[in-house]
Specification:
The complex is a heterodimer of chains A (113) and B (113). By secondary structure, chain A is mainly β. Chain A is built from no helices and nine strands. Classes of the chains: A mainly beta (113), B mainly beta (113).
Chain lengths: 113, 113
């Protein structure tokens, strides 16, 4: 499974945009980039995913580099409820038919009021 | 529509005791997963199932057994609990190995004394 690298922690101010980076230099052509987040004392929840093009949904935007070796999760306006651990994960749909996600350490996002 | 339900939510065991964690999903998902999360760490995959009657080992399978006799249920067993198995256990399910996201339960906190 290809690995991702994320900063251990980041801080943001409430109502400001947040850019969470992720490096995945060994990504393969069949790896989807998934983002999940885990609020305190809860299970992870899906945020967004993409393959090559930038993606938007109601929670966030995902910007994928042209060479796909890095991506950025963008929270357009951070709220206190966005304080969580954010995981960037590669999901291989090519060689594997298991659908499993292999989690790294993630980035702990603190949001200051 | 309950999603993914885990029982029990809390349990304290003595070393050597056995127990079973139950994961139930009502979304007709084929794929189910058991993860464990130790303090300050990301989730690690214990076992998974790609359909009724199938199971496979994940990253950290030792000391655990699983069964998927019914599509909606995925059981995680500890035959002889050890203090190293003190952790929070999360179950997840997914419709497909290729598209869509994983849905996680709220977690089961297990302490082994």
């Amino acid at each position: 499974d290809a690995k991702t690298t994320q900063p251990n922690s980041m801080e943001s101010n409430e109502e400001e945009p947040v850019h969470l980076p992720c490096n995945h230099s060994t990504i393969s052509g069949t790896d989807y980039i998934h983002w999940y987040r885990q609020l305190p004392s809860q299970g992870p929840e899906y945020v967004i995913h993409g393959l090559t093009s930038n993606v938007n949904n109601r929670m966030a935007s995902l910007a994928i580099a042209e060479d796909r070796k890095s991506s950025t999760l963008i929270l357009h306006r951070a709220t206190l409820r966005d304080a969580a651990v954010y995981y960037c994960i590669l999901r291989d749909i090519g060689s594997s038919n298991t659908g499993k996600l292999i989690f790294g350490q993630g980035t702990t996002l603190q949001v200051k009021p | 529509n309950a999603g993914v339900t885990q029982t029990p939510k809390f349990r304290v065991l003595k070393t050597g005791q056995s127990m079973t964690l139950l994961c139930a999903q009502d979304m007709n998902h084929e794929y189910m997963y058991w993860y464990r999360q130790d303090p300050g760490m990301g989730l690690r995959l214990i076992h998974y199932s790609v359909g009724e009657g199938t199971t496979a080992k994940g990253e950290v399978p030792d000391g655990y057994n699983v069964s998927r006799l019914k599509k909606q249920n995925f059981l995680l067993g500890l035959e002889s609990a050890a203090p190293s198995q003190t952790s929070v256990y999360f179950c997840a399910s997914s419709y497909s190995a290729y598209i869509g996201e994983l849905f996680f339960g709220e977690g089961s906190r297990l302490t082994v004394l």
